[in-house]
Write a structure and sequence with these properties.
There is one protein chain. The protein is an alpha+beta fold. The C terminus is likely disordered. Strand 2 and strand 3 form a beta hairpin. 48% of the residues lie in helices and 22% in strands. It is built from 8 helices and 12 strands. It has a 5-stranded mixed beta sheet with strand order 10-8-9-11-12. It has a 4-stranded antiparallel beta sheet with strand order 1-2-3-4, with helices on one face. It has a 3-stranded antiparallel beta sheet with strand order 5-6-7, covered by helices on one side.
Length: 321
């Protein structure tokens, strides 16, 4: 199973920061406790001395929480049962988040772009991760056809102004994004193709009369048909995809013909009226008719559509008057 992983992040440094931040939280918490002990009434310095450690303690605890929930876990995507599966896994064991998205419902996958870091570049200072971890940035956006959106793959850079670029390579993230998008498009194409084959098989396994009408309507729609000779019969087909992909037509050679030319030079000839053709052949049976009958049924479809078009046009004219 192919998996696309968000492996462009410096996880070891994130773990180092998470291990150090609790000590900073303990120290600030102690300062907060001491400020409460010496609190001597409502005045500026007393309130300032109590609020400042409390705010810093909140920021550190938020950074620890976000670091554990977003930055330390590994992220991966793969395809399973016609769905794109996203997982955020902590310590290769605990699944913190799992999303299953129908592949055919995905409209697009976008890279929201590189986010400018806010640290001063001292990546060994755990306090810098208070800002790095404050608001996780999930860089890849999955847009659904019905408007729903999903954000995945954390991206951050704790040392933008140092020379240690090997820890954060934006090209690596972009490669992961391209691999993910390519995998989704490839799987979508497979599903669409398989669905097309299933629909064609359903059409060609339908009752004979229904199959016959499908072929004739296809011929009129596409304004072309496909002709092959099998034994003593001529097989008439109207679907290029069926000829190209269905196994039943694998060993039958079809020639494409323009409907107008076929109608003028073959169907309209008096000497061809009683010649037999097989329409809707599916490897087992087809509807055997004469050229004259084929011509009459094509005309019925055309006349029916023409009458509908005129009726629709008249109604439109009536509305406009």
């Amino acid at each position: 199973m192919k998996k696309i992983k968000n492996d462009s992040q410096p996880y070891r440094i994130y773990i180092f920061a998470i291990l150090c931040l609790p000590f900073a939280a303990f120290f600030i918490g102690l300062c907060f406790y001491l400020s409460l002990l010496v609190f001597d009434g409502i005045n500026f310095w007393s309130i300032y001395g109590a609020l400042l450690p409390a705010i810093i303690l909140y920021l550190i605890m938020r950074a620890i929480k976000n670091g554990i929930l977003y930055f330390i876990p590994r992220e991966e995507c793969y395809v399973e049962e016609k769905k794109l599966v996203y997982k955020r896994i902590l310590f290769s064991k605990f699944i913190l988040k799992k999303i299953k998205i129908s592949l055919l419902d995905i409209q697009n996958i976008l890279d929201r772009g590189y986010k400018i870091p806010t640290t001063n570049g001292d990546y060994l200072n755990p306090l810098n991760y208070i800002t790095t971890f404050f608001k996780p940035y999930e860089r890849i956006l999955i847009k659904m056809k019905l408007g729903e959106k999903f954000n995945i793959f954390i991206d951050a850079n704790p040392y933008p102004y140092t020379k240690f670029y090997s820890y954060h390579d934006d090209n690596k993230f972009i490669k992961n994004y391209n691999d993910l998008k390519e995998m989704v498009i490839e799987e979508q194409n497979k599903l669409s193709f398989n669905q097309k084959i299933e629909n064609l098989m359903e059409k060609y396994n339908s009752p004979l009369e229904e199959r016959y009408n499908y072929i004739l309507n296809k011929i009129v729609d596409e304004e072309k048909l496909f002709i092959a000779k099998k034994d003593s019969n001529y097989i008439i087909n109207g679907s290029y995809d069926a000829i190209e992909y269905l196994e039943i037509f694998k060993n039958i050679y079809f020639e494409e013909a323009d409907l107008e030319n076929f109608y003028s030079f073959i169907l309209s000839k008096k000497e061809n009226e009683n010649k037999k053709v097989l329409v809707g052949y599916n490897g087992v049976d087809g509807k055997e008719i004469t050229m004259l009958k084929l011509k009459e049924d094509i005309n019925k479809i055309r006349d029916g559509r023409s009458a509908f078009s005129k009726l629709f046009g008249n109604e439109k004219d009536h509305i406009n008057t």
